[in-house]
Amino acid sequence: EIMNLIHENMKPRDTIMAYYRCAIMEVETKFKVLNEQFSLEYDRNPIESIKSRTKSMESLAKKIRDRNIPSSLEAIEENINDIAGVRVICSFCEDIYMLANCLLKQDDITLIEIKDYIKKPKPNGYRSLHLIISVPIFLKDEKRDMKVEVQLRTIAMDFWASLEHKIRYKKNLSEDLQKELAEELLYCANQSAELDMKMQKIRNKI
Ligand code: 0O2
Fold first, then answer.
1. pTM of the predicted model over 0.95
2. Which residue in 10, 31, 48, 146 has a CA-CA distance of 20 to 30 Å to 87?
3. For the RelA/SpoT domain, which residue ranges apply (predicted)?
């Protein structure tokens, strides 16, 4: 599969993006294996779904501009951590930490950075556990370490984040309305955090 993705006559940019897609495959497989094992041993799936993406060229260009990153491929690889993104949606909050620990214990995974927006949510209410990791991909005659951003969240956290993301990109909203929506979104984030806690308690009872 990798050989189909990477041709020697590809442009350097396309080659790098193919490497990131390979890194996504590696990380996705690791989570799928863990889900399979839990399904076999405990008859339950801690993962509801996995959504992966490579950053769009448009969003990458914006980040490079906003952060004044030199536009060489080396500088981009060095400074941008979320070109490859794997989002893991879990049923319960405790599964997030359990899966993160299982991943980080694997001997080919290196943790670069951890951002726990569950223990310390963003001021707008955003919650998720972010891991920046490095994972090797094995090519024809080379091993290459690639960075991947893993976002782990519950269904409730994902529901909130996707709605907030849509609202944030709505243009032409008056300042008053923006403030009102921000307050309502924060209220909803707190409500959904409470719901996650209640669901976890119910699960812990059985
Ligand atoms: P996309 O691709 O549209 O998802 P870093 O460069 O990693 O040090 P950054 O980028 O601020 O700094 O990292 P952070 O805060 O960990 O957030 C990165 C990603 O987390 C975002 O990607 C979102 O996917 C998600 N995220 C963070 N904060 C919020 C938030 O307030 N609301 C929502 N809906 N998602 C959030 P991008 O870059 O926005 O792009």
1. no
2. 10
3. 52-175
